[in-house]
Recover the amino acids of this structure.
């Protein structure tokens, strides 16, 4: 019996599965755009989780390469004292974004999320009202609302930033899944 391939389409369904917790309507629209059923999205996520948890499975970087192919580009970066390579893959559902995997010397994956594609212009984020689901990435929100404070997300593929509305001084928590903005929560951020 031949295994059903797991490629870019299935990977996009994995990204959507976690986003469905916060943006079910957007996920449903995206799923229809991909001509995928809810059952196919769940099955893609089940298979992905099995690959991630397999005791003799591929390492993270090998898994991404086997699913997404060779990266569109690779950029060497220095972040403070750390050096790494940022590998970028196109994501057909979001043509203006790339899936970025940050790889340490030796091949360990440090981070994996969606970022703006090189040369693509992101949204103008001047006020809290400019934050719309799926419109911006962690980096874009952090730059737009300094001094944004990183916070632990509620799951491995989630991030959060404590930000302040420059107009009112009110505190908010911006939540992201796979690096893409999902929702804004008012109130005092967790310490």
């Amino acid at each position: 019996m031949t295994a059903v391939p797991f490629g870019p389409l299935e990977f996009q369904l994995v990204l959507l599965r976690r986003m469905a917790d916060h943006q079910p309507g957007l996920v449903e629209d995206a799923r229809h755009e991909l001509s995928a059923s809810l059952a196919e999205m769940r099955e893609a996520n089940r298979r992905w989780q099995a690959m991630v948890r397999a005791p003799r499975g591929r390492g993270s970087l090998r898994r991404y390469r086997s699913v997404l192919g060779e990266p569109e580009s690779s950029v060497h970066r220095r972040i403070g004292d750390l050096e790494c390579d940022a590998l970028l893959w196109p994501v057909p559902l979001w043509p203006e974004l790339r899936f970025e995997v940050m790889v340490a010397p030796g091949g360990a994956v440090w981070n994996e999320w969606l970022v703006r594609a090189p040369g693509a212009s992101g949204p103008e984020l001047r006020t809290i009202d400019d934050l719309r689901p799926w419109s911006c990435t962690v980096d874009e929100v952090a730059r737009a609302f300094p001094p944004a404070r990183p916070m632990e997300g509620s799951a491995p593929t989630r991030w959060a930033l404590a930000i302040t509305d420059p107009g009112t001084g009110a505190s908010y928590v911006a939540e992201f899944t796979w690096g893409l903005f999902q929702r804004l929560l008012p109130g005092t951020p967790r310490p």
Observations:
- The longest strand covers residues 82-90.
